[in-house]
Every structure is written in structure tokens, then in C-alpha cells.
Please model this.
Amino acid sequence: MSCVTNTETLPVGAAEALTHNVQPLLHEIRHALAKLLDDGGSTVIDLRSLPLAPGEEQRLLDELGHGEVYARMHLLGPTEIVETRYPGVWVVVHFNNDNEVIGKFIEVCSIPDLLCSQQEDIRQGLEQLQSHLA
Amino acid sequence: MSKDETLGEALRRQGISRRGFLKFCAATASMMALPPGMVPVIAAALEKAMRPSVIWLSFQECTGCTESLTRSHSPTVEGLIFDVISLDYHHTLQAASGSAAEAARETAMKENYGKYILIVDGSIPTANPGYSTIAGISNVDMLMEVAKGAAAVVSVGSCAAFGGIPHASPNPTGAVSVSDLVKDKPIVNVPGCPPIPVVITGVLAHFLTFGTIPELDALGRPMAYYGQSIHDRCYRRPFYDKGLFANTFDDEGAKKGWCLYKLGCKGPTTYNACATTKWNDGTSFPIEAGHPCLGCSEPDFWDGGGFYKAISTPTADIMQAATYAIGAGAVAGVALGVANRVKHKKAVGEHVKTTIDDLEKGN
Model:
């Protein structure tokens, strides 16, 4: 049996009919945005728990697009937080120190918790500033 | 790191901010297949978690499970977990060897009796204790001795969970699983050949967070990762439902990414997290790469009737398969898969184990 090495004779592409999860996810985000407006309740969707076909995750992220806010944080490796074109819909991607993805979430909220300074860190910062000024 | 420190104290001492800790908890929740809403619960629990001692015993194994774990794609999280647990004994990872290594194991057992976690990879030979020994101690004896003082046992990989490759016909070493021997301890099976790395650490993280073992299915596997079949979460499922199959590895259906059922895919009868969690940094999994699922997280997958024979290829009696189909309400193809397994189990029960003498005689 001969091995085919010329990939030009074997074009491979992902089929168009996929899991069709992009539309339902967008509707889920729509419902979450309405809930955020109604009672201020936030929603988090873990993208890694969903069966998305090759290319579907990117299609979803392209649909959501980029808005006014982009934040890059440095904590145990980089974390990127982007507000999408729909205010209140954020994409949060966690990387490790080797720039490998360790978590990918869609958060529907006023502002992701991670962007807020934490009480313990503020307390520690105050102690540092006090000893610096002493 | 001091064993009397909590995880929260240890992370703060390493200069990790509260924000960093919350990122760690979010990644851990995702790793444990818990909903993101559980992150505050995990944060509260991990803040107070104490450092458990872990003893890892390797028996008849290929080291693939350790390789899978140590090459996992989120070393920051795993690194933190392994920094938190006290891995007191592991053949591949520990610096000590020989009597020093065995002394480390004995000390860890004595100091943490009743509280340490025992992790096992590899099957245990029972036909002759000499088939696999460590420092002159047979695998059976070492397992039974260490299991006595363990709080819980985690069988990592299909070999420890179900016997795996050594257990495959004709099973010359009489290989058995951990649960065939240990009967009085809670056992978590984490099968796969190898298991997905985050599944291994997810179980450890669960124990660290909640102090208990996760909810298990009938085969002792965590429901969070093994609760659904590959078939039910496969992105190619719409093609199965429409009857669009690849018939060979290079036909039009294969190029278009159609269902691999006819090429032997064991997805319908296999329970694992491959279709969602995937492999290599969430890159892909066998079906997405164009290869049918082997069913490696199921018992006796090596003797399951051929990797490239469709599940619906009957090796069982058709009438019996029909009975299963009616009884279980299963689709015909899946019913045949179940019937094939039952027939195989009966054959195993009547199987005479091969001894080394038989092998030498050429039987």
C-alpha cells in the first residue's frame, strides 16, 4: 500500500453542517444580558465544557467581536479580558506561563470580578505603602 | 512547604495575589468540570485545605499515565496542585532510589496513616508474584500493605482501573485491577489509555477542595468526566443522525468529516471527556483527527472485537442482540455492542490462564 504524501491531491476541509451550537449560544448570551439588565445577575459560560466543532469557537468569538475594553493581566501567566461589541458581554481567557490556554469563559456582567482589586491585595498594598512612607 | 500550612497560606507566601488565587480557582473549577458558579465555593475550600500526603505506586504499566500528567497543558495549575500535595513516593518523579526510596514510602505511611491518598497505575499480576516486583516486594503485597492505611485509592489509567493491556487475552501474567484486590477502601477509577491529564488532577483537586471523592458511576469513574458517552458529545453526531458515514479513511465522507461509525468508532459505548475537554491544550481528540474512538476508557477494550470493525458487526447471536435491544430500549448497533461484551465476559470466565511454563512449551 503506498503512502499518500502529496496533500494537494487530498484536500481536507471541515464540513459546513456542524454542531450548530453557535446560534444557541448566542441566544443563551442574549437571555443572560436581559437577566443582567433585569436583576443585575451575572452569568458565566465555560467554553471548554461545550462540544464545539473545529472552527465553531472562533466563529462564536468573531460574532461577539471586540468592544471598547481590552485588559491584559499578569497573574500565574497572562490573562486577557475583552469586552465584546455587546457591552456587558466579556471574553476571559486564562493562559499559563507557557502561553497555553487553561481556561476560556464568556462572562455576562457589569465587570468581571478579576478586573476588580481584591480586598486582601488592597490591604497588603496599604501596608507596603505605609512602610515605604515611614 | 510546611505540611501544617493551608493552601491559601502557601500561595500567599509564594507571592501569589488574591487575584492570582481566583484565577487558579477558576481554572481548577473548569478542570473539575464544575460550573463557574462554584468558583467562590472552591476558593473558600482551597483557602483552608491542608496538604495531603500522596503515595503513587507503579505496577505493570508503560508510564504513559505519568507522562500524560507531567506533559499536561496547564503546568501552572498542576504545578500548584503538586506543590500543595506532598508527593512522597513516585518511581519516575522522585529523586531517591533503592532503599532510600522505600524508606521514604514507609515514613510517609507511618506519619500519615489513615490519611494519605494512594494512587496506583499499572495492573497487578497474580499468576506469579515474580512477574513484577519493587525492591523484592511483589506488587500484590505492596498494594495490600499500602492500601491498609490509605484514606482513598485512585486507580489511574485503564490498567489499574480494569487490568488494561496486560489483562488482554491471553493475560499471561494473570493481571487484575486494583478493585479486584482492594475491597475495603473507597476507590476512584480514572481509566483511559492514558487518561486525559486534567481528569487526573481534577480528581485530586476535588479531594483537596471537598475532602471527599467525587460522585462515581457504576464502574467507579467520576461522573463529571465519564458521565456521558463520546457519541453523545461528539461534534460529528449530526452526521450519524443523518446517516452520513465515512466508509474508508480516504473517501469523500472522510474528507468531509462525516461520522466514523462504520470505520469502527466505539464512541457509542465509550464514556470519557475527550469530545469536550479534548487533548493537547484542548486542541483535538482522535475523532476530530479523523480516527475512530478506540474505547480506551472501557474495560477490555483491547478484546472488544477489533478497532476497525463497526460496533454493529455481530459477533454475538442476532436473536440475543434483539433481546438486549428490546430490554434496554437501545439502538440496534449499541445493543450488539453490549451483547458482544457479555459474550466476551463469559469467554473470560471460562478462560484458562497461561503460565510461564505454558509459554515456554509453546502452547
In short: Chain A has a mean pLDDT of 85. The longest strand of chain A covers residues 101-108.
